[in-house]
Amino acid sequence: MTRVDDDGLICYSGGVFRTMESTMTKPIRVAVTGAAGQIGYSLIFSIAAGDMLGPDQPVILQLVELPVAMQALEGVGMELDDCAFPLLHSIELADDPMQGFKGADVVMLVGAKPRGAGQDRSDLIKSNGPIFTGQGEAIDAVAADDAKIIVVGNPCNTNALIAQSRAKRIPKKNFTAMTRLDQNRAVGQIARKAGVAPADVHDVFVWGNHSDTMVPDVSLGTVRTGSGTKSVVEAVSADWLGGDFDKTVRTRGKAIIVARGKSSAASAAMSAVNHIHDWFLGTGESKITSMAVPSDGSYGIPEGLIYSFPVKITAPWQYEIVRDLKVDDATKTRMMASAKELEEERAAVADLL
Amino acid sequence: MTRVDDDGLICYSGGVFRTMESTMTKPIRVAVTGAAGQIGYSLIFSIAAGDMLGPDQPVILQLVELPVAMQALEGVGMELDDCAFPLLHSIELADDPMQGFKGADVVMLVGAKPRGAGQDRSDLIKSNGPIFTGQGEAIDAVAADDAKIIVVGNPCNTNALIAQSRAKRIPKKNFTAMTRLDQNRAVGQIARKAGVAPADVHDVFVWGNHSDTMVPDVSLGTVRTGSGTKSVVEAVSADWLGGDFDKTVRTRGKAIIVARGKSSAASAAMSAVNHIHDWFLGTGESKITSMAVPSDGSYGIPEGLIYSFPVKITAPWQYEIVRDLKVDDATKTRMMASAKELEEERAAVADLL
Predict the structure, then answer these.
(1) How confident is the model at residue B19 (pLDDT cuts 50, 70, 90)?
(2) Which one, A48, A204, B161, B171, has the greatest CB density within 10 A?
(3) Catalytic residue among A89, A202, A210, A277, which?
(4) B51 and chain A: CB distance < 8 Å anywhere?
(5) Which residue has the higher pLDDT, B75 or B226?
(6) Is the domain covering A180-352 a CATH 3.90.110.10 domain?
């Protein structure tokens, strides 16, 4: 497309013209903890670029770090300024969630002690739990009434439960944890195996805890190929699905640590962006997505556990657990095992709830 | 927007539906060096997310690293898979540019020895130069005939000159270096000072070398406020423009290193994304942007130097240097000093050209 400017110069723009809406739409306040950490550093630039809340939605970033990391966070803030992001309304930095969560519409709890090489999630439960009591209290005290929360810091399901228990003012169902990374890993594996782009794989999801007890589920999954759309179970072999696929998805976090020497950062950040994007803007061509949300007792999962279900987005910031799916016995057994693990995690932090 | 699926379920999607174009549009091949490095790690996920080439353009990422970094690069490749990016057609990893640049439509030369605390750009010229002879030769041998090149690794202007000299097959004007980060820094400073969003500041640019001799120029710059659009010189004080503003923009790289303990990464990556985005898709609401491109002798800048000019994008992958701007004497003096620095850099690497 070409256009003629006031001064008669012809300008070319093949993209969408940046609109003046950025000065008119009310900004959304997004608080992020661990903002100077590995995941945070990938996440916040993606948010500011509009990947999470859409290309017309201004955002205020409220970045929270530990006091010891505030100088690094200042540097990150300078870099955000230096990007001149059209949608970035303003930036606030805080070393206290009571300040950093003020008025936040979206709270992304990313900061946590990372899992090192050789460590597993269960080692983290006790050390990370107390962080989330304080953050839950800060959400209760100062966040927006209808704040939406995603917990990324592990063990994320149980950390979400802890934060939720300290924030009675906020609707319980607004507390979610991230299993979208697991779903994305499953989609990536299937796309590669089927020889299609990830855009051609839909409606794969995961049940349960974000741990190696999670249950990838392809029963609703589809693959679009040159010759039409098939179910995942038609497109790839049952042996692979029950073997390498399942194991790869469940243990991918550890494999990344082995390869990179650090835990997943950018892929975790992009998945957090996907989680919030879809919660707000819908799932596009997919009918469902995975979110760990408070169980309502569906499928026999104990009520209140933060458990990954297939959900449908029915309106901005509204999700519904997909009910009445037919689940085979083997899957059901594994779903209950993952629920049992979450009950044990809940018991381990009972003094914090 | 809501829609009714085949099975009668109502789905919500407030965003644009992901289109099937991703399976129909020919992918663009983008080669990136230093892909597992700090800037690369921010850059490639942003490319895969569609920030650089637009939301409907599939991409093939050809990631290049030193042999010693290939294991880390494998991990990055795994994380890219794990994001299930709809636009990411495929990924190729290589430890040799002769393989990694094969058929590349866009070549982003990011890898270089980073500038450490206390070091300045001139220390890098001799150590980084030889990297770019080999990469220029690989571009000449295997990249697409009309490949577009951006050099990010410093000293980027002179590195671009070196690569260009070894790639006679490729049009000279396709070799560019990144000064968009400097422009973005200038815009960010003005937005903050004027109390507007960066989206409201346009047509600020920089002349010269990506070094502290660069010349930020606000003579065409505008600021949109609640009460209308003003020139930058009306919106902020001349004292500030000639003082803190100028100095902050020119020395920002060092200030970031002091704050973060590392050089700019995400902001450099986002600026590289902006550079290629605008070259391909136009400058949107802005009339011009900054690119370091081969001088055609305009403004008395010696022909052939890779020098930052204000450019207009006239069609996809077509830029034109904006000629015949009125330049005041003080600015002209500084522009020539920056050109002189680039002539000295060229002399220092004469044996490589």
Answers:
(1) very low
(2) A204
(3) A210
(4) yes
(5) B75
(6) yes
Catalytic site includes residue A210:
yes
**Does residue B70 belong to the interface with chain A, where contact is any CB pair within 8 Å?**
no
Alpha carbon A300 to chain centroid, angstroms:
25
Q: In the block, which residue shows the tokens 């010696």?
A: B302
- Containing A312, the helix (H) or strand (E) segment is strand A306-315
Mean pLDDT of B31-35: 98
> Would an 8 Å CB–CB cutoff place A260 in contact with chain B?
yes
pLDDT band at B94 (very low <50, low <70, confident <90, very high): very high
**Is A284–B78 a contact, with Cβ atoms under 8 angstroms apart?**
no
Helix (H) or strand (E) holding B131: helix B122-142
**Which residues in chain A have Cβ-Cβ distances shorter than 8 Å to B75?**
256, 258-261
Topology given in CATH for the domain delimited by A27-177: Rossmann fold (3.40.50)
- Residues of each domain in chain B carrying CATH 3.90.110.10: 180-352
Please provide residue A243's backbone torsions phi and psi, each rounded to the nearest 5 degrees.
-110, -100
Q: Which residue has the higher pLDDT, B180 or B116?
A: B180
| Alpha carbons A183 and B56: distance in angstroms, whole number | 23
B17–A197 C-beta distance less than 8 A: no
DSSP letter string, A20-79 = GGGGTSPPEEEEEESTTSHHHHHHHHHHHTTTTT-TT--EEEEEE--GGGHHHHHHHHHH
Is residue B13 pLDDT above 70, yes or no? no
Beta strand B205-207 pairing with B215-217? antiparallel
ipTM: 0.89
Beta strands in B74-165 (DSSP E): 88-94, 106-109, 148-151
Q: How many CB atoms lie within 10 A of CB B29?
A: 22
**Rounded to whole angstroms, what are the CA distances from A164 to A132, A140, A176, A328?**
9, 9, 9, 32
Domain(s) of CATH 3.40.50.720: residues in chain B: 27-177
Contact across the interface for B266 and A199, Cβ inside 8 Å: no
Q: Which two tokens stand for residue A305?
A: 């556990």
Question: Rounded distance, CA B33 to CA B30, Å?
Answer: 10
What is the Cα–Cα distance from A316 to A309, expressed in whole angstroms? 18
Name every chain B residue with its beta carbon within 8 A of the beta carbon of A280.
14
Mean pLDDT by 10 residues, chain A (353 residues): 36 34 75 96 97 95 96 96 94 97 98 73 79 96 98 96 97 98 97 92 97 96 93 96 96 92 94 98 96 98 98 97 95 98 94 91
| Cβ separation A313–B12 shorter than 8 A | yes
